[in-house]
Design brief:
By secondary structure, the chain is an all-alpha fold. It contains 7 helices and no strands. It has a single domain (about 5-80), classed as Protocatechuate 4,5-dioxygenase, Chain A, CATH 1.10.700. This is Protocatechuate 4,5-dioxygenase alpha chain.
Length: about 80
Protein backbone atom coordinates (compact mmCIF):
# COMPACT_ATOMS: atom_id res chain seq x y z
CA UNK A 1 0.00 0.00 0.00
CA UNK A 2 1.21 3.45 -0.80
CA UNK A 3 0.15 6.14 1.61
CA UNK A 4 1.43 8.79 -0.77
CA UNK A 5 -0.76 7.56 -3.62
CA UNK A 6 -3.82 7.35 -1.37
CA UNK A 7 -3.17 10.90 -0.21
CA UNK A 8 -2.78 12.09 -3.80
CA UNK A 9 -6.16 10.60 -4.73
CA UNK A 10 -7.92 12.21 -1.77
CA UNK A 11 -6.22 15.54 -2.46
CA UNK A 12 -7.26 15.41 -6.11
CA UNK A 13 -10.86 14.60 -5.22
CA UNK A 14 -11.02 17.31 -2.58
CA UNK A 15 -9.56 20.10 -4.69
CA UNK A 16 -10.82 19.52 -8.22
CA UNK A 17 -14.43 19.70 -9.31
CA UNK A 18 -13.52 17.88 -12.50
CA UNK A 19 -11.96 14.99 -10.59
CA UNK A 20 -14.92 14.87 -8.19
CA UNK A 21 -17.34 14.69 -11.14
CA UNK A 22 -15.36 11.95 -12.89
CA UNK A 23 -15.17 9.96 -9.67
CA UNK A 24 -18.92 10.23 -9.10
CA UNK A 25 -19.64 9.18 -12.70
CA UNK A 26 -17.34 6.14 -12.73
CA UNK A 27 -15.22 5.55 -9.61
CA UNK A 28 -13.39 2.56 -11.06
CA UNK A 29 -12.39 4.39 -14.23
CA UNK A 30 -11.25 7.43 -12.26
CA UNK A 31 -9.22 5.35 -9.80
CA UNK A 32 -7.57 3.37 -12.62
CA UNK A 33 -5.28 6.35 -13.28
CA UNK A 34 -3.57 5.75 -9.92
CA UNK A 35 -1.38 2.84 -8.85
CA UNK A 36 -3.72 1.36 -6.26
CA UNK A 37 -4.46 -2.21 -5.35
CA UNK A 38 -8.00 -3.57 -5.09
CA UNK A 39 -8.20 -2.99 -1.33
CA UNK A 40 -7.12 0.64 -1.69
CA UNK A 41 -9.67 1.28 -4.44
CA UNK A 42 -12.39 -0.25 -2.27
CA UNK A 43 -11.44 1.92 0.71
CA UNK A 44 -11.84 5.02 -1.42
CA UNK A 45 -15.01 3.94 -3.23
CA UNK A 46 -16.64 3.02 0.09
CA UNK A 47 -15.43 6.14 1.96
CA UNK A 48 -13.66 4.05 4.61
CA UNK A 49 -11.98 7.06 6.18
CA UNK A 50 -11.13 5.35 9.49
CA UNK A 51 -9.33 2.55 7.66
CA UNK A 52 -7.50 5.07 5.47
CA UNK A 53 -6.36 6.95 8.58
CA UNK A 54 -5.25 3.66 10.14
CA UNK A 55 -2.98 3.22 7.11
CA UNK A 56 -1.37 6.58 7.89
CA UNK A 57 -3.32 8.78 5.48
CA UNK A 58 -3.44 12.36 6.72
CA UNK A 59 -6.72 12.95 8.55
CA UNK A 60 -7.13 16.42 7.07
CA UNK A 61 -7.29 14.68 3.68
CA UNK A 62 -9.74 12.03 4.88
CA UNK A 63 -11.91 14.75 6.40
CA UNK A 64 -11.90 16.87 3.23
CA UNK A 65 -12.65 13.78 1.13
CA UNK A 66 -15.58 12.92 3.41
CA UNK A 67 -17.02 16.44 3.37
CA UNK A 68 -16.65 16.95 -0.40
CA UNK A 69 -18.94 13.95 -0.84
CA UNK A 70 -21.68 15.76 1.05
CA UNK A 71 -21.33 13.64 4.16
CA UNK A 72 -21.78 15.13 7.62
CA UNK A 73 -19.03 16.28 9.92
CA UNK A 74 -20.87 14.60 12.81
CA UNK A 75 -20.78 11.20 11.08
CA UNK A 76 -17.09 11.67 10.25
CA UNK A 77 -16.27 12.29 13.90
CA UNK A 78 -18.25 9.24 15.00
CA UNK A 79 -16.42 7.06 12.51
CA UNK A 80 -13.05 8.43 13.51
CA UNK A 81 -13.86 7.74 17.17
CA UNK A 82 -14.91 4.22 16.15
CA UNK A 83 -18.51 4.89 17.13
CA UNK A 84 -21.48 3.84 15.01
CA UNK A 85 -22.32 6.36 12.27
Amino acid sequence: MSRNTLEKVLYDLSTSGTHKKKFSEDPNKFLSRYQLDDKERALIREYKVRELADLGVNTMLTWGFWLQAGKSNRDYLKIMKREEA
